[in-house]
Design brief:
It is a single chain. The protein has one domain. 45% of the residues lie in helices and 10% in strands. The protein is built from six helices and four strands. The protein is globular.
């Protein structure tokens, strides 16, 4: 009942509240992105969602438009990140547009981070371990246990552990750890682009 009703209700109310609260800062970020570099304000990328179904994930664009679309493990992202992008990534402001994904029911605040469609081995392993049985999240168990500092396989293990035991207590713990990690930029490796 928690996962089906209360978690979804929290997602909707939380996303609406944060979008209202963040509308002015988001507008300022949009203007800064346009001033600094050529290209769209938002970055959208096909990711794997619940039951391995693809959906478009939205972020503020933090990189140049000529950045190759590959997994973060195969990209030296540092040379592609814009100045404002570096600040957004360090503070996780680039993730704010995912609130629209939450409102649309494609994501939750808490759940396994959605992977890029082309990461076939990771997608397959997540499916085998049933880590894809729940909505992907803006933050998740793997993110608060290392984020960019853990391997893709370790993330799958954390994601499966979460997906098979979703409960209010763990979601609350992940939420508080996420806030803590964002405030102190813990687990962020600048060269990696997630």
């Amino acid at each position: 009942m928690y996962e089906r009703i209360w978690k979804r209700a929290f997602d909707i109310l939380g996303a609406v509240f944060l979008l209202v609260l963040a509308c002015v800062p988001m507008l300022m970020v949009a203007v800064l992105i346009k001033i600094e570099s050529v290209g769209p304000i938002f970055f959208k990328q096909l990711r794997v969602g619940r039951y391995s179904k693809p959906f478009y994930l939205y972020k503020f664009r933090s990189m140049r438009i000529d950045t190759p679309e590959v997994s973060s493990n195969h990209l030296n992202g540092h040379k592609y990140v814009t100045f404002i992008g570096r600040i957004m990534r360090k503070t996780s402001v680039d993730e704010l547009p995912q609130l629209f994904n939450v409102l649309k029911g494609e994501m939750s605040f808490i759940g396994p981070r959605p992977v890029i469609v082309s990461e076939n081995e990771v997608v397959s392993e997540r499916r085998n371990r049933r880590a894809d049985r729940c909505l992907p999240g803006i933050s998740g168990w793997a993110q608060v246990n290392g984020r960019d500092r853990v391997t893709a396989f370790q993330k799958v293990v954390y994601d499966a552990e979460y997906a098979l035991d979703i409960n209010f207590r763990r979601d609350l713990k992940i939420l508080f750890l996420t806030i803590w990690n964002v405030l102190f930029a813990r687990g962020v490796v600048e060269e990696k682009i997630q």
